[in-house]
From TrEMBL:
One of its GO terms (biological process) is amino acid transport. GO terms for molecular function: symporter activity. Its main location: membrane. This is Amino acid transporter transmembrane domain-containing protein. It comes from Digitaria exilis.
Amino acid sequence: MASVFSLHAQLPPAERSRQRAQIRPDIIEVTAVKVMIETHTHNAAACGRLRKAGQQDDDLRAHCDLTNFRSSPQPTQSSKPPTQDTDKDSSLFLPTSPTQKQVSPLPPLYMASSLPIGHHTDTTAAEQSSHHHCLSSRRPQLRLRASSPSPARRRLHHSSRHPSLFLTPTNLKSIIHGGFAQRPQARAGNAGAAEWLDDDGRPRRTGTFWTASAHIITAVIGSGVLSLAWAIAQLGWVAGPAAMLLFAFVTYYTATLLAECYRTGDPDTGKRNYTYMDAVRSNLGGAKVAFCGVIQYANLVGVAIGYTIASSISMQAIRRAGCFHKNGHGDPCKSSSNPYMILFGLVQILFSQIPDFDQIWWLSIVAAVMSFTYSSIGLALGIAQTVSNGGFKGSLTGISIGADVTSTQKIWHSLQAFGDIAFAYSFSNILIEIQDTIKAPPPSESKVMQKATRLSVATTTIFYMLCGCMGYAAFGDNAPDNLLTGFGFYEPFWLLDIANVAIVVHLVGAYQVFCQPIFAFVERRANATWPDSAFITRELRVGPFALSVFRLTWRSAFVCLTTVVAMLLPFFGNVVGFLGAVSFWPLTVYFPVEMYIKQRRVPRGSTKWICLQTLSISCLVVSIAAAAGSIADVIDALKVYRPFSS
């Protein structure tokens, strides 16, 4: 009979010190653990109790209290099997012996970091030594009851239920020697794992076709729809609608290619890619990953700046509409947009504390409803204005060259119009992140995403055609660059106020949809770089909510940065065109085409390869031209602009 080792005392002092430094509060909240270990080498067992001491501790303190065992050659007949705890949290006693029946199938426990046992033991050396003997024939039992983890910590499961989790001997050994292994894969034959985990060992995703469609519509039907009347005015009745249909087709087609790259290898069963950069890394690798990261996240930051500008313009328009209604249209009703940008930034600081993409689905639905609201109002006002005019305005070739518009300005504005239309269809930069929320299979994530893309692009194209064309029909060459805030309409002022409020609410949600990938990227890198930092991992409890100190600090700083930049560059139309131009080709066309060619092994020089490369090169030319037009317009605006004076 061999002596049973103490969980804590078994390790060398250096190893114990190393494990103390690795204790992190972001792993899991453990309320109670009873452990009895049977080893093949020592044929011995031990037990311990792990209890978390308080919610507000900086470190997760483990306490090991060895339980009394009496030496006996065999368990007596009166020995009672373990029973379930009567606590409201469901507890589970699971055998490490293969001969004992498991109570119920539950998913394997996974953690992302080490959780050493035996730290800060409560028992004295004498108490430990009195319990160091128990017979090897005693059947070891294991129970783990896990409390509901906070949202900011490990997403062990989606709901607030408190399931017991099966702790395997392999994982237990990993605990004793310094940490868990990587997240286990959910085995096909494990019913418990299939119930709680996806095939990558992460909590089962809950997104559907409808939630994916809501995310896309929130991202696509944004403030860009309000500039489409101006864009069509630059191109005319022929080139304007044609460009809109062309960009819609290109966006849809390349989105279907990108959706098939969510998994590397087989689009249904291959390895998942959680972000756009992950997909590029898995399929292309090399310097293209860095290029993708710079373009993607720069575009997302730019979108956040553009939406801050757009929201301030809408809030400013609400005030001006009331002023015009009260004092007449002769009153200039001037006001600064800076206070409105600051107000929008304060709201975003609050909403930015939502931990991740999965938890903003409700905000996307609200934002999508707001999109349809203000787009419908703009469409109705355009129809009413057209009827009032007695016919359609505009021409086949767009704005005429004359006293107000030179030939050079006509060219630059036409190129910028292409950028505006491209921006109006921009969502590929967050497509992979949206697809990673979908619950599948069956059907596969790519099938669901392609279906959601088809519905979303078709819906938005119809709205775009109606809003853009009716706006141009109502105002002709004088179409404003923002249909609802450029004061092409003055009455009914209350309807305009409703539309502008809807724009602001939509932009609050759209800002989060585009910024959550940035937040996730920075926080993943921070956790990987400083895994033992209390500033990075610590959370504060505020009632039922858990606030991360790092998340509160850095996300607030990010919102402040975008707000300040927006106050420096309040050129909404110009910013929109430039963003659409610089991001459309690499994110919407180039990377999806290249990844599809690599993943599907399209032969170089084949007809399909030539068609895909022709599409990519053509879109590159359009993007360069549109970016040039936007830059030229920004330079003209900067000649008469003074910072923070808008």
